[in-house]
């Protein structure tokens, strides 16, 4: 970085003084805080995004959103060239520059990091960052700060993609780096055409069990609701009514996070909706849950969460693979058996994990966090991951997609219209419909809808796949959360010494009891999760283990 480049960066940074007494940390959600505190941070993340583009020689994404947080909050996160999350290796640098006290300290950090990463500032290809924001009032000013951060790196440009969902921006980054058109219209076209293809491949004579094509969607008064209200015009096979798509306060009594945690109907839904198939998006449309309002029960609902969505997807994919690899195909030259894997965290309800295993599926657990789930799912030919909160997707490996396309081409020429050819077509269409960059409520919703029609299932039939075990989550305040060390995807506590044996003794008191503890990633608390066959038993198990945590290292239940 020459003197002129340094001078430009210092001049720009001087306009964005960091707030005093505020320390931010980059996590799965990027940086999040009250919007009034973020201008300096977003400016500096703009710099990071430009440096990331220089390093990777690819287009990078920068999204301004606080997802399911209250409207007064905002946040910023970076999308890597694949459309996935910023590599974890760069997170410490993100923390360092966000918290640099002044422009000169910031410049020094950048120079040192660029040297370590071998990032050159001369003679490289154009540096471009795609920018997106959700509907929050604070988004426009923060977007301007991000642009100024990007352009403080000489030669870098920020391309404003407008108001978009987080998954749309990540999809656009992935598309651009694959040489495809990256626009909202191309996103909607890919989703609608692959959805239509799957609808055309439904088995003949299938009838819905008590349901029709009507779907009512809670848009969380966020960007996802607005986009779906526009997008539904392209989905003539479905009758979609969107509620809460901009006429109320973002995430206030609405949205997937609210519905999943509170297990009640969102604002604008009530007894009159009993029997209808309903879905809820979160504030930036990267989470999706379904629900049905219970008749004569005010705002109580039957929740169909991310675990059930995962189960539905896994059943469908497994069935298509079974058709493709039936006994006759073993005589064929291409009898490759795809490696299908399901990835969950320890927070997945034990009933869902048991059900998936009973169906003969390979289930793998990872530590909590989308980055771990996504990374593990990418190890399979087809990897499916979801959290109970409704965030998840399906990943198809490039090698398997090439093989599948070749198989499909052969089947078209030798047995067009056969069950195998249709199964291959369905799998290819799913790979186009699902957003492989990250969890996407809009693409996930379309895949749920087409699978329900394929199966001939109502939401009630879907919800009967298994019955969740009652669970309870608690937080215990501790002096030092790092004193808890876990293993086996956070299901075992190896430190403090002896605590796991004490937890096991409590678990043994309850039928189908399960309990684990893990340190919070953001605050000095230890989280307790417990399951058992009754709610009273789950509550009791959680309480007794919280007491153990307090005895070993705590200062009271939060």
What features would you describe in this structure?
- With 558 residues, the protein is an alpha/beta fold.
- The strands form 5 sheets. The chain has a 5-stranded mixed beta sheet, sandwiched between helices. A 5-stranded mixed beta sheet has the order 7-6-8-9-10, sandwiched between helices. It has a 4-stranded mixed beta sheet with strand order 12-11-13-14, with helices on both faces.
- Helices cover 40% and strands 19% of the residues.
- Specify the biggest β-sheet: 5 strands, mixed
Counted beta strands? 20
Helix content: 40-55%
Q: Measured on Cα atoms, how large is the radius of gyration?
A: 24 Å
Distance N terminus to C terminus? 49 Å
Class of secondary structure makeup: alpha/beta
List the total number of helices. 18
The unreliable regions are none
Beta fraction of the residues? Answer: 15-25%
Binding site for Mg(2+): 67, 282, 284, 286
Enzyme class: isomerase
Organism: Solanum stoloniferum
Active site: 67 (phosphoserine intermediate)
